Amino acid sequence: MTRRAPDPQVVVDATYGYRRLDPLPVDADLEGFYQSAYIDLVRKGIRFPEMGHLLGPEDEAEREREWLQTTLHADLLDALERHVPGHPRSLVDIGCGIGEFIASASAAGWTTIGLEPSREAAAYGVERGRAIACATLEGYLAQGGPPALPNAAVLKDVLEHVLDPMALLRLIHGMLAPEGALVIRVPNDFNPLQELARSSLNLRPWWIAVPDHVNYFDHASIRRFVEAAGFRVAEQWADFPMELFLLMGDDYVSRPEAGPACHARRRRFEANLDPATRRAFARALVPLGWGRNSIVIAIRSADQ
Length: 304
Description:
The structure is a single chain. By secondary structure, the chain is of the alpha/beta class. The chain has a single domain, classed as Vaccinia Virus protein VP39 (Rossmann fold, 3-Layer(aba) Sandwich), CATH 3.40.50.150. It is built from 13 helices and ten strands. The strands form two sheets. A seven-stranded mixed beta sheet has the order 5-4-3-6-7-10-9, sandwiched between helices. Strands 1-2-8 form a three-stranded antiparallel beta sheet, with no helix packed on it. It is globular, with a radius of gyration of 19 Å.
């Protein structure tokens, strides 16, 4: 009888201090998962609900797109405008999904290229006129890379998925122009509200997603990790702490059907805030350790 391999555990990385799976999944298994199962899980809301809304019915997709454009995308572009002075401005969005952010950046005057290893997601974006190559960063650079050093790179919801996140950041460091900006968004996992909701409601640690969530960062560990890769952190903020809904009685973990209503309430909350107030709120969450995701703007040092 074949003995089943033990499930991976979450451990603290001895070198950099973030959490990760042990043992790490096999690269070929991850590749098969992303090409076969991942998009279907997204559509069902089991993975990356933001993209799931964008792939849903057109009225819901349009609400999600408008919310992203006026909140997250506007905040990222505002930060990039302040940290990448002058023109021309170019960015590479690594793991761009269906290309919603590069569409917003292009409309704001940036020259953009998106890289997306999922054939289905890349094709979806290309059909909508977005400049997306179906490739990893390693593959793109092996094919010649960008025509000139970009002055921004975006890693939104990517770093938690890769087997060697430090190698990826060092590739980006070598690709970026001096003083170029790196945008990172990662889940803020094992955060105080998650732990409180888990213990109070007797929930499993729902944020652990095997095999594709390989790495688990929080506000402090992502900052240390980015700095270890040779970047200077210029800004950091969080997005809405969704775990508050759990603590208020909306158990979207045990009852996934409650999730869309919670998400809609979050969108209404943010829509009712002016940009300055929304951004101040997002920055105030970091010292508390709160927020569903951690967003970092980091600068490549000119002398490295």
